[in-house]
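Researcher: Sequence recovery benchmark, item below. Answer with residues only.
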């Protein structure tokens, strides 16, 4: 697990369905992701879904010409928690 992805859309998922989104390493599988989230945040995970995002093609202009490259691929994990559990990323008491 690299980091949580906190966006407006992901925050709505947290409120509506108790689903949290993380950026994970490309070689991590669902079992490893589940174990890492349960161990780090002390919560119960009920489901894990993963998604691989392909890197965008980028064109670079230099003084000597133009060349192309790609950004790195990324992997997201959508982690559903037990209905009684939640994760507080910002340390606010609720």
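Model:
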């Amino acid at each position: 697990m690299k980091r949580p992805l906190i966006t407006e859309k992901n925050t709505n998922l947290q409120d509506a369905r108790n689903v949290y989104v993380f950026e994970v390493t490309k070689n991590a599988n669902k079992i490893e992701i589940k174990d890492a989230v349960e161990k780090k945040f002390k919560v119960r995970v009920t489901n894990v879904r993963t998604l691989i995002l392909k890197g965008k093609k980028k064109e670079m202009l230099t003084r000597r010409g133009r060349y192309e490259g790609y950004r790195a691929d990324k992997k997201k994990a959508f982690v559903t928690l037990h209905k009684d559990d939640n994760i507080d990323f910002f340390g606010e008491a609720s």
